[in-house]
Design goal:
TonB-dependent receptor plug domain-containing protein; mainly beta; Immunoglobulin-like; receptor; 10 helices; elongated; five-stranded mixed β-sheet; Plug_dom_sf; 14% helix
Length: 818
């Protein structure tokens, strides 16, 4: 019997060890896969925290690897949306970056409604996760006349109303360190208090047990956070008691477990001290403690003994800066304790040096500025930077507000949103700041994944692929457009030079060309044949081509974990609106004065309408000047005439159903909207389809190859981009393919130019905007120059960016214009 018991116990120990060892391998494998298939993060720096109707929003978007914060290996395409309070997208930009950052802008139309708009950014690859991972920020857009969004809340005085005021008790939540209270194990408990409007508040009260005996006092302070220490006893429960106007409100604590685990951590800055405790009969045997930073493994400990407590210390000097997650698994692989710790690595300190050549600045002065980056050892660094300079009298700037460092290291990795997160990065060695930062870690959880999902959810193919560029895609079907046809397709792109590519569709008739990188719009031609392009036979062109619009659908708008504007009810909002109104008045007055210029004697020759028309047509024809041109605007009744009739009206051109020639030469080369074409392709056109026709012969045709018989170039009437311009014969379509958005250039007046000196009054709120600052490799500095405006004021220089090795940084400085 004894031998049998020993055998069973030996088998149990063996199976337990095997399970734990396999579980350890599973955890490490899944973490490695998570890092290999890294998530992406986006951050947007805007020039201001709020705007007025008619303003421009200038911004820089940063796209990084969500673990290392270096350049992402996946996406190159970014979608940025501006969404109104009705969750309608009022403007959307599709941006391309082959780097970490890219510039963009939005024009705020004057007919929009004021309100709290949502600025949202994501990549297609980020759609594989929850929309919580998108960058989302609240952007107040203010009306000018009615001063919308200004805080007009007033305090109600009970004696004035003569009525009793109903009391809404605050919301109080308790967060035992590690996750659970356990009888007989002392535990820290984080406390977070909010009012009825979800604002963090400071309160104080008492901790009592189920016998109504006072255990201790408590209070919350900054960010509504507080901390107590509690040793739960068996057969007792606990609650927090607060008194408001003589009325007691009770908040029960989570019920303590009779047995369990506790993970206690003390963050000393350069090291972390751990205490792991269990009152289970088996103690901590076969428990597994794992530490990771954004998924990257930094620590593991498998406990083989049956001890009830162990301690250890972890040095943090070589760790990444940011949130570190520690999780304790029991001997069944169940996560039983979790604790976040924020690692501050002084080796990652970045110094942003900003120097002005002129210490005393006047209005309309030229400012020359130098910027460089240094590490802790004063070595030069490189990276991506963006900078805004704003009038402090109109735009409140605070280092406590969200910035790229606070977002990437803090808000993007935890559940919920931290108000004024910049506070936690202001003072390097401030004990109070570090204390409240640790309370934030105690009261918030890691949100990038849950262990059950990471470990046990089957791996499936991600539905959304990273985008490297734009695709031109569509389908080929029969002439009735009902049944798909497998065919050979050919893409022709005209700019900057002719490019062609062939592909065979799949059995569903689908084709896709790309990825391509181009900006604005380019003329594009797609042809299809049932067999190939080298031979023609009856019905070879009987193919219907349809193009898919290259617009990625927008995900559902979910307004949670949004970075709210910390200045929505700022005292400077009204000052901002007054300045915005002044700018609007100046612009209107300037436009009115411009309308009166006909009273001024100007000695210049005004272009005739014919000259302006010629310039427009020449530009479309790439300034390849024709021997003859037929402008359909000049042909009375030309809209109803066939292309053959119209060609025969041009001197030297002869055309019939078989083709066209110039001055009895050989067949003329045909081009349609700049594309090489055939006479068969254009024979069905009528004047209603055509804007103008150019005929080039002799030396004028030398611009094109194989033009011995001359060239006839036909330009059709253009409609909206990404739509078919003109109905063609089967087997060919042309359209304007829409490329990536190119940000407008921020207007910066040059007062060294005599023309700019006499322009309208200059009261810019955003004095200057630099979306991408490049450091010179020779001097290790960037040099930037601009002119001050007509406003004597204080100005804030806000610089944000990421170094090449993935360290986010933020710097604010000021200067005065007298």
């Amino acid at each position: 019997m004894i031998k049998k018991i020993i055998l069973i116990l030996t088998l149990f120990v063996f199976l337990s060890f095997t399970f734990t060892n396999n579980f350890r391998e599973l955890v490490l494998e899944k973490l490695e896969n998570y890092v290999s298939n890294h998530p992406e993060k986006l951050y947007i720096q805007t020039d201001k925290p709020y705007y007025a109707l008619g303003d421009d929003i200038w911004y820089t978007t940063y796209l990084v690897n969500g673990i290392t914060h270096k350049r992402s290996n996946y996406s190159r395409v970014i979608y940025v949306e501006l969404i109104n309070e009705q969750d309608s997208i009022v403007s959307k930009k599709q941006l391309y970056t082959n780097d970490i950052s890219v510039a963009g802008d939005f024009k705020i139309e004057k007919n929009w409604k004021p309100g709290n708009y949502l600025l949202r950014a994501f990549t297609n690859y980020m759609r594989n996760g929850d929309s919580d991972y998108f960058f989302q920020a609240q952007i107040p857009i203010l009306g000018l006349e009615n001063k919308d969004l200004i805080n007009t809340n007033t305090e109600i005085n009970q004696s004035d109303t003569g009525k009793s005021i109903s009391i809404t008790p605050p919301e109080i939540n308790f967060y035992p360190e590690g996750g659970y209270l356990v009888n007989g194990i002392s535990s820290k408990i984080g406390i977070k208090a909010k009012d009825e409007n979800n604002r963090n508040i400071a309160i104080k009260g008492l901790i009592k047990d189920s016998n109504n005996e006072i255990i201790s006092e408590f209070k919350t302070q900054l960010f509504g956070l507080g901390l107590i220490l509690l040793l739960p006893e068996p057969n007792k429960t606990y609650y927090a008691s607060i008194n408001i106007n003589g009325k007691e409100f009770k908040y029960p604590f989570p019920k303590a477990l009779s047995s369990g685990y506790n993970l206690s951590i003390i963050n000393n800055g350069d090291n972390i001290k751990f205490k792991v405790v269990s009152n289970k009969p088996t103690g901590l045997k076969n428990s597994f403690l794992v530490g990771h930073q954004r998924g990257k493994l930094i620590f593991e400990k498998f406990e083989t003994s049956q001890k009830n407590t162990y301690y250890f210390k972890l040095n943090t000097n070589n760790l990444l800066e940011g949130i570190t997650n520690f999780t304790l698994f029991d001997n069944n692989g169940k996560p039983v304790c979790e604790r976040l710790v924020f690692i501050e690595n002084t080796n990652n300190k970045i110094k942003v040096n900003v120097s002005l050549d002129n210490k005393i600045l006047k209005t309309r002065d030229k400012v020359s500025m130098q910027i460089d980056l240094k590490d802790k050892e004063d070595n030069s660094l490189y990276g991506n930077l963006s900078m805004s300079i704003t009038d402090i009298d109109a735009v409140e700037q605070s280092t406590k507000n969200e910035n790229i460092k606070a977002y990437l290291l803090l808000n993007s990795d935890i559940r919920g949103h931290i108000e004024n997160p910049g506070y936690f990065f202001e003072k390097e060695n401030d004990a109070k700041r570090r204390y409240f930062l640790d309370l934030v870690m105690l009261t918030h959880g890691w949100r990038r994944f849950t262990w059950n999902e990471l470990l046990f959810k089957p791996e499936t193919k991600k539905p959304y692929e990273p985008e490297k560029g734009l695709f031109i895609s569509g389908y080929t079907k029969d002439l009735k457009g009902k049944n798909p046809i497998q065919s050979t397709t050919r893409l022709t792109v005209m700019e900057p030079q002719i490019y062609q590519e062939k592909k065979t569709t799949d059995y569903k008739g689908a084709f896709q060309f790309g990825p391509y990188v181009f900006f604005d719009t380019i003329p594009t031609l797609i042809e299809a044949r049932l067999k190939d392009f080298e031979r023609e036979f009856t019905k070879n062109r009987d193919v219907n081509i349809s193009i898919q619009k290259n617009n990625t659908s927008s995900p559902e708008v979910i307004r949670k974990n949004i970075k709210k504007s910390d200045n929505t009810f700022s005292t400077k909002i009204e000052d901002y609106i007054n300045k915005a109104q002044k700018i609007s008045d100046i612009n209107n007055e300037f436009l009115e004065n411009a309308r009166r210029l006909d009273e001024v004697l100007i000695i210049a020759k005004k272009k005739s309408e014919a000259e302006e028309r010629t310039e427009i047509l020449d530009e479309r024809a790439n300034n390849v000047y024709p021997t003859h041109r037929l402008d359909l605007n000049d042909v009375i009744g030309g809209e109803s005439q066939s292309i053959i009739f119209l060609l025969n009206t041009i001197p030297g051109v002869r055309a019939n159903s078989q083709g066209a020639s110039i001055r009895n030469g050989g067949p003329a080369g045909i081009r349609l909207d700049g594309f090489p074409s055939t006479f068969e392709d254009i024979a069905f056109l009528f004047g209603s389809d055509i804007e103008f026709i150019d005929v080039l012969s002799g030396a004028n045709a030398g611009f094109y190859s194989n033009a011995s018989g001359g060239i006839i170039s036909i330009y059709t009437k253009r409609f909206n981009p990404n739509t078919i311009n003109v109905k063609r014969k089967p087997g060919i379509i042309n359209f304007d393919a829409v490329g990536f958005y190119t940000a407008r250039e921020f207007y910066a007046p040059d007062y060294g130019n005599s023309f700019d000196e006499v322009k309208k009054q200059d009261v810019r709120i955003t004095l200057h905007w630099e979306p991408k600052i490049v450091l010179n490799e020779a001097s290790n500095k960037a040099e930037i120059s601009f002119f001050t405006s007509d406003a004597s004021s204080n100005y804030a220089i806000k610089i944000e960016g990421i170094t090449d090795n993935g360290i986010p940084f933020y710097n604010m400085s000021t200067f005065v214009v007298e």
